[in-house]
């Protein structure tokens, strides 16, 4: 496969913590918080983007090219005060979709409710392949989005953690989804077999190094390709990528099964999709 290199986001994409739930920042102001520039994101293979109409191949997509927006609005997680841009724009020489903030929330663990990280779901809601009734249920809407458009999951830890901790959580979640799919009869033998190597690769790309407090980790799930020979990619910033349609879809849906891995995220996304649809 041909390697693709995504250069770093501008530091202003990653805002500072604030007590307010929303604020407006001009890009002409000095960047605050999350000031460290992020290292390149390595992408592998010909990745289908923009509803499968654009293939990025043998090209370098510069994410820190000039940003055309004059202002960016942010929304804070009420539980942690960590802020997320309401629109995620990734400037590049190749056109990429504009990602809208669908919802956000805190992830807690243990009976003490320790806050581990804040998490947000972004999606390309302008994808013409998104054709669903406004009256559809939340489960139908989130499934439709997960299957038909590009998404970004952004995780910002509330305290220093490790990539291996996140890796283990991701793998438990995906293996749990596979077991659940077996019980429901919604996964074919071919899907299960073709997912095995990408699952092993996904597990292997996470290092044993720390992920610093308030450092964003982005996971990009590309849109489906019109060419079935090109599976969707799951791209983990700085670390690498895997290509598999089942993993791409289930990585998103795992956050919304039952009460959700983050009930706060599920509730927020549910509210964000109330008026979504035709």
Automatic annotation (TrEMBL):
Any one GO MF annotation of this record: intramolecular lyase activity
Organism lineage: Eukaryota, Fungi, Dikarya, Basidiomycota, Agaricomycotina
Leader sequence residues: none
SUPFAM superfamilies: Chalcone isomerase (SSF54626)
A matching Pfam family: Chalcone_2
Domain of life of the native organism: Eukaryota
Matches recorded under Gene3D superfamilies: 3.50.70.10
Span of domain Chalcone isomerase: 98-128, 145-269
InterPro entries per UniProt: Chalcone_isomerase, Chalcone_isomerase_3-sand, Chalcone_isomerase_sf
Protein name (record): Chalcone isomerase domain-containing protein
Species assigned in the record: Athelia psychrophila
């Amino acid at each position: 496969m041909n390697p693709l290199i995504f250069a770093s986001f501008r530091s202003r994409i990653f805002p500072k913590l604030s007590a307010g739930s929303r604020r407006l920042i001009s890009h002409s102001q000095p960047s605050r918080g999350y000031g460290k520039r992020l290292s390149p994101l390595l992408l592998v293979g010909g990745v289908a983007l923009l509803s499968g109409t654009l293939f990025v191949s043998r090209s370098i997509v510069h994410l820190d090219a000039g940003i055309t927006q004059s202002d960016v609005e942010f929304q804070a997680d009420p539980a942690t005060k960590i802020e997320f841009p309401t629109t995620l724009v990734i400037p590049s020489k190749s056109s990429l979709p504009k990602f809208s903030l669908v919802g956000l929330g805190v992830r807690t663990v243990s009976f003490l409710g320790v806050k581990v990280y804040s998490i947000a779901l972004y999606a390309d809601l302008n994808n013409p392949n998104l054709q669903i009734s406004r009256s559809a249920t939340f489960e139908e809407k989130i499934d439709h989005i997960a299957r038909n458009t590009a998404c970004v999951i952004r995780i910002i830890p509330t305290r220093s953690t490790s990539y291996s901790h996140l890796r283990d959580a991701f793998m438990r979640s995906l293996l749990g989804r596979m077991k659940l799919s077996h019980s429901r009869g919604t996964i074919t033998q071919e899907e299960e077999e073709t997912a095995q190597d990408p699952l092993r690769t996904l597990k292997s790309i996470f290092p044993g190094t720390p992920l610093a407090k308030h450092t964003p980790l982005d996971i990009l799930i590309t849109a489906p390709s019109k060419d079935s020979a090109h599976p969707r990619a799951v791209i983990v910033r700085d670390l690498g990528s895997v290509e598999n349609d089942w993993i791409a879809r289930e990585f998103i849906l795992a956050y919304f099964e039952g009460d959700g891995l983050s009930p706060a995220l599920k509730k927020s996304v549910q509210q964000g999709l109330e008026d979504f649809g035709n």
